[in-house]
Amino acid sequence: TPASGAGPPPVGKTVSPVRVDPNGASASDSCPYPDAARSRGDTGTVILLIYVAADGRAADTKIETSSGSDVLDDAAASCVKEFGRFVPKRVGSRAEAGWFRMRFTWSFGDQ
CA angle 33-67-17, nearest 5°? Predict the structure, then answer.
Protein backbone atom coordinates (compact mmCIF):
# COMPACT_ATOMS: atom_id res chain seq x y z
CA THR A 1 0.00 0.00 0.00
CA PRO A 2 1.44 3.42 -0.88
CA ALA A 3 2.34 5.71 2.00
CA SER A 4 -0.44 7.97 3.22
CA GLY A 5 -0.85 10.88 0.85
CA ALA A 6 1.10 9.18 -1.91
CA GLY A 7 -0.76 8.37 -5.09
CA PRO A 8 -0.61 5.17 -7.08
CA PRO A 9 2.51 4.32 -9.06
CA PRO A 10 2.86 5.52 -12.64
CA VAL A 11 0.96 3.66 -15.33
CA GLY A 12 3.14 0.93 -16.84
CA LYS A 13 3.82 0.29 -20.52
CA THR A 14 1.48 -2.71 -20.63
CA VAL A 15 -2.03 -2.28 -19.20
CA SER A 16 -4.48 -5.18 -19.25
CA PRO A 17 -8.25 -4.84 -19.71
CA VAL A 18 -10.05 -4.69 -16.38
CA ARG A 19 -12.28 -7.56 -15.28
CA VAL A 20 -15.46 -6.56 -13.49
CA ASP A 21 -16.20 -8.40 -10.25
CA PRO A 22 -19.03 -10.80 -11.20
CA ASN A 23 -20.60 -10.32 -7.74
CA GLY A 24 -20.66 -6.52 -8.00
CA ALA A 25 -23.06 -4.24 -9.82
CA SER A 26 -21.84 -3.07 -13.19
CA ALA A 27 -20.47 0.45 -12.88
CA SER A 28 -22.00 1.38 -16.22
CA ASP A 29 -25.43 0.20 -15.03
CA SER A 30 -25.10 2.20 -11.79
CA CYS A 31 -24.15 5.50 -13.43
CA PRO A 32 -26.85 8.01 -14.25
CA TYR A 33 -26.49 9.80 -17.59
CA PRO A 34 -25.28 13.34 -16.82
CA ASP A 35 -28.12 15.82 -17.32
CA ALA A 36 -25.96 18.36 -19.16
CA ALA A 37 -24.74 15.71 -21.61
CA ARG A 38 -28.24 14.28 -22.08
CA SER A 39 -29.72 17.70 -22.86
CA ARG A 40 -27.02 18.28 -25.52
CA GLY A 41 -27.38 14.75 -26.90
CA ASP A 42 -23.75 13.93 -26.06
CA THR A 43 -22.71 10.30 -26.53
CA GLY A 44 -19.31 8.69 -26.74
CA THR A 45 -16.82 6.22 -25.42
CA VAL A 46 -14.17 7.13 -22.89
CA ILE A 47 -11.21 4.85 -22.24
CA LEU A 48 -10.22 4.95 -18.59
CA LEU A 49 -7.09 3.76 -16.86
CA ILE A 50 -8.17 2.43 -13.48
CA TYR A 51 -5.90 1.77 -10.51
CA VAL A 52 -7.56 -1.24 -8.91
CA ALA A 53 -6.68 -1.73 -5.25
CA ALA A 54 -6.06 -5.21 -3.85
CA ASP A 55 -9.63 -5.20 -2.48
CA GLY A 56 -11.06 -4.64 -5.99
CA ARG A 57 -12.06 -1.01 -5.55
CA ALA A 58 -11.08 1.67 -8.07
CA ALA A 59 -8.57 3.76 -6.11
CA ASP A 60 -7.77 6.16 -8.97
CA THR A 61 -8.70 6.82 -12.57
CA LYS A 62 -7.10 8.61 -15.51
CA ILE A 63 -8.69 9.41 -18.85
CA GLU A 64 -6.63 7.73 -21.56
CA THR A 65 -8.92 8.61 -24.48
CA SER A 66 -11.69 11.20 -24.23
CA SER A 67 -15.24 10.63 -25.40
CA GLY A 68 -15.16 14.16 -26.77
CA SER A 69 -17.26 15.41 -23.85
CA ASP A 70 -15.62 16.55 -20.61
CA VAL A 71 -18.95 16.00 -18.84
CA LEU A 72 -19.11 12.34 -19.93
CA ASP A 73 -15.41 11.75 -19.23
CA ASP A 74 -15.65 13.17 -15.70
CA ALA A 75 -18.91 11.31 -14.99
CA ALA A 76 -17.43 7.98 -16.10
CA ALA A 77 -14.31 8.46 -13.97
CA SER A 78 -16.34 9.50 -10.90
CA CYS A 79 -18.84 6.71 -11.29
CA VAL A 80 -16.21 4.00 -11.74
CA LYS A 81 -14.47 5.21 -8.57
CA GLU A 82 -17.75 5.19 -6.64
CA PHE A 83 -19.43 2.02 -7.93
CA GLY A 84 -16.80 -0.04 -9.72
CA ARG A 85 -15.75 -3.38 -8.26
CA PHE A 86 -13.07 -5.26 -10.15
CA VAL A 87 -10.96 -8.39 -10.06
CA PRO A 88 -7.52 -7.28 -8.80
CA LYS A 89 -4.21 -8.47 -10.23
CA ARG A 90 -3.02 -11.74 -8.73
CA VAL A 91 0.55 -12.65 -7.89
CA GLY A 92 0.41 -16.26 -6.84
CA SER A 93 -2.41 -16.46 -4.32
CA ARG A 94 -2.13 -12.80 -3.33
CA ALA A 95 -4.21 -9.93 -4.70
CA GLU A 96 -2.19 -6.84 -5.65
CA ALA A 97 -3.10 -3.36 -6.79
CA GLY A 98 -2.44 -2.45 -10.41
CA TRP A 99 -3.46 -0.36 -13.41
CA PHE A 100 -6.11 -1.66 -15.82
CA ARG A 101 -7.95 -0.29 -18.85
CA MET A 102 -11.73 0.03 -19.26
CA ARG A 103 -13.91 1.18 -22.16
CA PHE A 104 -16.96 3.09 -20.88
CA THR A 105 -19.64 3.89 -23.46
CA TRP A 106 -22.34 6.49 -22.95
CA SER A 107 -25.31 6.12 -25.29
CA PHE A 108 -29.06 6.43 -25.25
CA GLY A 109 -29.52 2.71 -25.91
CA ASP A 110 -30.61 3.05 -29.54
CA GLN A 111 -27.18 3.55 -31.07
Answer: 95
